[in-house]
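Collaboration report, partner site 2.

Our partner group contributed sequences for two proteins of shared interest, and the home lab folded both. The records are reproduced in the order in which they were received, starting with the first partner submission.
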Amino acid sequence: MRLTRVVIEADGRRFHLDMHPGLTVVSGLDRVARRSLGRAIVSTLGTGRPGLHAEVLTDDGHHLAVFRPPSSPVRVVDVDSARDITGDVAPDGGPPDLLAHFGVGPTEAPAVVLMGPRDLETRSVVEQRILELAHVDQHRLWDVADKVAERAAQLSQLGGEPEELDSVLVEEIDRRHRAFEAAQAEHERAQRVWLLFGANAGLMAAPVAVAAGWAAAIPFLGAAAAMTAWSAHEWRVVEAARREESAALEEAGATSYLAFQLARVDRALGTEAHRRRLGQLVGAHRAALQEWRLLAGDTDVEWADQHRREILGTAQRLRDAARAGAPSPAVMPGDETARDRLDRLRVRLAVRPSGGESVPLVCDDPFIEVDPGAKPPLLEALVECARQRQVILLTDDAEVTTWARVERLTGDVELVEHAPVR
């Protein structure tokens, strides 16, 4: 199964991402935006919230579309036959879940569909991190971890995550509107110049031709033609800018720039209570994250939760050793070579769902902590994997972006850049 398009709707606006069947690199996204987009992509294949839509191509060639309108039931459609197959995907009447339909359960999904920097850690590094967390007060550690997860879930339910993506669309609409206004102003100036010089030159050509012959009128005719061509060119520039602005507005679901701005004002006025609640949750989530970092350093809550059983088991062994008067166990990570990371990546890429259907792999900047010289073979391994299984790489790494710009020329990689609009 390969994603061909993901559409994210939030707050009346729409963001879409077209996918390469092999490797798609999405660059220019900070940590918050990467996490938001990564979760959204995975959610489109799972149960997903309203506003998350996807088009996929299955391994046996079926083109499916998943629609999740805000106020209508979820539908899964076989595009080629125009047939609603929602009942086939969700025979029990629950929300359609393509991952579950193709044999990827909710507990299996993170290991199969998502990959981050921690996935490339060697076993010695993992054990050292587990040991460090095992030395922390376990009751407080997991109480804070649960608090972070709970507040993150509440924030997601209020639609707090897509804001980073929406701001890109808003900036793009504003940029295109400014370009349209500039082109319109230049066209108006061209019209004034044409009226002043071009029209007069054309009118003067006739009497000059009568008085001195057509040869003498040629400069006047040439000036009139040049002014007319310049005015026509500026008109075409205006129309091109108008079409670009209209395309961006259509993407946001607005019919005009004025309607777009009025809708933004209405949302700002009409959702003040929502924004206050969202602000409170953002503050509470940040406070919980700060408390977590004081306990666990730079270890992610999600990573710790995935290794909770191992951490609890190690903590119990530490307590048993302390009661017996034995020295505490210690694990020191060995030197990680490029070969270690490459082997770890190949093991991670080899993970396949039990159902047999291939599923996309969403990578959240997995090479961010890798030395620059070690990145090329890791990226080439992704390209090789993408020939069998779709890979979507989300990154804010300038080196990876530069690599993708070159590899795009081969046709094996597609680069989608979301750098800030200037």
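Second partner submission, folded after the first:
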Amino acid sequence: MKKLSIQKLMAFAICLAFISYSHAQKIAHISLDSLVTVMPETNIAKEVAQNYLKSLDQEMLTMQSEFESKYKDFLEKEATMSETIKQNKQQDLQQLNKRIEDFRNQASQDYQRKYGELTAPIMDKAKKGIEAVAKEAGYKYVFDTSVGNVLYFEPSDDIFNAVKKKLDSMPQAAIPGANNTTKEPKSPVKSSPPAKTGGK
């Protein structure tokens, strides 16, 4: 019993020490999704992604048009075809149809990969801005409220506006495939941060 009491006291002491240490740290929060949304580079990335998607769609339409043309030709001449030619034509149509399906699946994956490449430098810049503001203000922890379910948290500082201001003073993120420039927009997008939620 005595040994158990000592263990409980030690555990309680450790918990108190941890709580005291945690309260001594400056913490902040920010919605990373909201921050990325108002960054001007995001619109550039979306435009490049849309152009890439259009090129994939155009290739898909070309392949479908080829299939429809060959299928129509097959139906028109089927009655006069020998069995061997008919089988070859049917096989060609099946192979072309499979290529279309394979292309459709691959195009979806390519688009996701491309979008990831385009948004990577934007996320990198956003995180650098958050890190810069955190170091300047002495924050030990910055929580991202755009992921997970934050049911409760102690009051903390929302650094959205501070980071947005920091990003406006940083060089524009280089978006692959876009006409990048180091000039900052003359009229940066202004947006109010998401409403602060707290536990109290």
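Feedback sent to the partner group on the second submission included the following. Residues 83-137 form the longest helix (55 residues). The radius of gyration is 29 Å.
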